[in-house]
What does this fold into?
Amino acid sequence: EDQVTQSPEALRLQEGESSSLNCSYTVSGLRGLFWYRQDPGKGPEFLFTLYSAGEEKEKERLKATLTKKESFLHITAPKPEDSATYLCAVRSNSGGYQKVTFGTGTKLQVIP
Amino acid sequence: GAVVSQHPSRVICKSGTSVKIECRSLDFQATTMFWYRQFPKQSLMLMATSNEGSKATYEQGVEKDKFLINHASLTLSTLTVTSAHPEDSSFYICSARDSTTALDGTIYFGEGSWLTVV
It folds into this structure.
């Protein structure tokens, strides 16, 4: 069974205090790992897709990396507007059937 | 970037009636769309996977006769909550996989629909 675990559950940072969010996964046949940002009462907003170990992607203050077992979302010098819940999801292929499994998210709060 | 539009964003219906939620991929084709339900402060719960032109695949515990899913075109999927009850009140979110360029395309989400059954 595919599993996705995100840590920490909640993270409180001072503005400018860099940190990383973790997404550990166990899947059979990884076909992509996704990072999303979700604000309260809204649908998840796509951030990154990573497909293979060693791949990295950046967008403004965010950088996502991928290994064979986990992914990190690095946040450099965060601002209050970065406060949100960050979701990680993996897509796997088992017997020709693709499945997407989500983690429970990391709630990030950035304090001015 | 790719956009998935979900409508309505908020709907209130009376107990016993049915309500339809639409999910459209605006600038890409989506052979596969997903429907989720999200309870307050919880993560997304996959309800079903819909493939264009075929029957949806429902997750265990999700009543297919209550949550009717139709994916009649490459850009539109609908979720109909039939005979709605107050316990069906929730935040429903759809997502669509961009299959235009590759099978493993990125998945984009709609804005979500708040359903309140009174």
Observations:
- The two ends of chain A are 41 Å apart (CA to CA).
